[in-house]
Each structure stands twice: as C-alpha cells, then as structure tokens.
DNA sequence: TTACTCATGTAAGTAGTTACATGATTCC
DNA sequence: GGAATCATGTAACTACTTACATGAGTAA
C-alpha cells in the first residue's frame, strides 16, 4: 500500500492537514505518486484507526475546525519497515510502449505525432526533475527545511543525497525516453521513405 | 482503457480464446501490461457486448466448449482510433523512486540491499527486453508470423520495426535504471564512510 | 492414479477515478 | 459582492487483485 507509505513519509517532516497533504501530492510528491484528495482524506481516517497517525482538531476561523495529522511511533516504525522491505516487482503498465508497438495501425503522419508528443512530454519531465533535484540539493523546499530542522546534523547529508539521487535518476530516465522518442520520429521518417520508394504510386486519396 | 486496447491488439494477429490471451499476457505482452485471467474473461464479455469482438463456441473434448474471440471491423476501427489518440499523461506511480528518496529511514546496510535488488531486477529486465527485441527482429514469434501472414508484404517492415523499437527502448530504459541503481550503491558507500569518519564511534549495537 | 495443462468462470475485496456537495476565510 | 483559496467530505463507478471453484484432456 504505497499511498499509505507516501503519506507517512510526508508526515515524518511535520504534522499536516489532509488539505496540505493533497497540496504536497500536487507539488512535491507530484512527480512520484498521484492521489486525489478524496483518496487522501479516507486513507488518513484509516491510518488513524490503525494508530499510524494521530489527529488533532484545530480551529479554522470561528466556526469550523480542521484536523492536523501527526505521525505516531507506530507510524515511524511502519516507514522504517516499508523502506527496508523487499519490493515486489511492479506489474508492467507501459501504456506508451504498448501504443508504440502497434503504430502500424495508423498513418506515418499520426505515428510521428505520437512520438513528437512523447518527446515533448519526456523533455518537460526531464527539466522538472532536474529543477527539483537542484532545489532539493540547495535545501530550499519548505518540506526539506522542516525535515532538516528536526534531524541530527550528521544525517543531513544522507537525507538530501537520497532525494537528489532519486530526482536525478528520474531525470536520466526521462532523457533516455526522450532520446527513444526522437529515434521513433527518425524511424517513422525512414519507414515512410521506404514505403514511397518501394511502392508504385499508391491509390490513396 | 488499456486492457481493452491490449486485447484488441492481440486479436488483430488472429482469433484467440480467453485462455490463449492470458497466456500471451504472461509471455509476450508480459513486459508491457499485466492482467489476470479473471479480468481478461470478463473484459472479453464486455467487449463482445460492445461489438468489438465476436465469439464462436468451439468444441473442447466431447462435452465442453470453449469460446474463440475474433476482432470485428468495429474492433479494428477502435484500435486505429486508440493508437492515434493523444495519450493523456500517465499518473506517476514510482514505487521504487519513492522508496529510494526515503532511505534515510533505514540502515546503510539495508539501503544498499535495496539498490542491489533494483540493479539486479533492471538488469534482468534489460536482458529480457533485448532478447525479445532480437526474437521479434528475426520474426520468430508465433504471433509475429500470424501477423505477417495476414498483412501485405509492403507493411512487414513497419510491423516489425515498431515492435523492435519498443523493446529496444525498454531495454535502454532498463539499462539506464540499472546504472542509476549502481550509482545508488556507490552513494550509500560514500555516505557510510562519511558517517564513520565524521562520527565519534557511535553507540550502536 | 496422479500430475499437468487446458479452459472458464465467480466472488469478495482494495485501490483509484470522477463527480457532486458544502461551507469558511481572505483579498480585491 | 465576487473570486480565489482553504478545507473536508460523500457517492458512484471502474480497475485491479486474490482467492475460490470446477471440470476436461493428456501423458507418465
């Protein structure tokens, strides 16, 4: 259950409301895991029942309240267990690659457009990962500051280094995928030329 | 709905029973998309209702029957629509990278083990993708032969090339991830040495 | 007769998506 | 007064997982 692990990991930085957690899921963990607020609120309730987090009602304006969730010792133990646990191999969900493997079912034109879209997406991702890695390296995110404020200085290097390595890894992967998409564009070009050359002028409209 | 698209794409090669489709999901599409037989059988029924496939009852032994599914014209149109359709950006589900970013919650020892497991997994994946690319390039899979037998020779190059490009891309990605895991091992080593050096001998057990 | 592969399903549960719904506070 | 943001939820649905269940054919 990775949503639970993501939420617990975020809460190791500092206590947060469900709303704040959804914001971080849209802004910081956004690159790693997505979850809508509906799922986050209900998961938090479940985790509270399980004793992994503890909620405190806080006033919000004059009438309403909000609930701030803090991680418990049991929650911290669960995070330690989870990071060290051997991960089971994720089941393949390679939407882009499935599509790429069946591009003969469309025109060269549209096949090329698919690879162009992939190239652009991976390049955008690459830049975002790179940027986030630099921000983390400079210890400039609010969350990173909260983390380091609570941790013994000797551990600071590791806390930063693991996160930077993660985002650099994702940036490298995105760069590889961008290159793959570019080769895809070149492949479509070659196939199109070969089809034109080896073909008597076809009776297409 | 990618499961539907995967099933339809497989059925463009030749008609198949639900059982055969699950076998291909375990052996050929295994690298791209996973689905258990329970999901495949029910999805096929739904697709039949939608007119994308047509089932024919075939005898199986003397008493029982099996159902062979063939793609319909509507199904073929759906495949063409699907491959050309702009894909919406997949929601991030980066289990491995989430874990990697929080390795400070475990020991150097166990952190290293996580990266070692990742290195081994990605290397195994890389070899499997590479192998499958070569088999496809040689047009040696049963499915590829069925595909080519039905298609005009002018299209053979594209049919093969798209699939080879897909698997080579996945192999390249796996190689990149393997390298990232190896850098992870080196990172843990460095962090451990730094911790030992900068530390008065700690009171660990 | 035992084990294996072929073959097809149901059922219960969890995870994730999308839409609906409400209300407070803050800033212009 | 209106828009944006803070804040929290429910409901319906689809996708996916895991386990249970059954039975036929084939080869040792």
Shape of chain A from CA axes?
elongated
Output mean pLDDT of chain A.
93
Question: Helix fraction of chain A?
Answer: 55-70%
Count the beta strands of chain A.
Answer: 3
Q: What's the gyration radius of chain A in Å?
A: 23 Å
The number of helical runs of chain A is 8
Strand order of the largest sheet of chain A: 1-3-2
Interface with most residues: A-B, 72 and 72 residues
Largest sheet: number of strands, sense, barrel closure of chain A: 3 strands, antiparallel
Describe the structure.
- Two copies of one chain form a homodimer.
- Chain A is mainly alpha-helical.
- Chain A is 67% helix and 9% strand.
- The first copy, chain A, has eight helices and three strands, in the order αβααββααααα.
- The first copy, chain A, has helices at 2-11, 18-27, 37-49, 73-84, 95-101, 108-137, 142-150, 153-198; strands at 16-17, 53-60, 64-71.
- A three-stranded antiparallel sheet of chain A has the order 1-3-2.
- The termini of chain A are far apart.
- The mean pLDDT of chain A is 93.
- At the A-B interface, helix 1, helix 4, helix 5, helix 6 and helix 8 of A face helix 1, helix 4, helix 5, helix 6 and helix 8 of B.
Outline the fold blueprint.
Two copies of one chain form a homodimer.
Chain A: H1 2-11, E1 16-17, H2 18-27, H3 37-49, E2 53-60, E3 64-71, H4 73-84, H5 95-101, H6 108-137, H7 142-150, H8 153-198
Antiparallel strand pairs in A: 1-3, 2-3
Helix pairs in contact in A: 2-3, 6-8
Chain A binds a DNA duplex (28 and 28 nucleotides) through helix 2, helix 3 and strand 3.
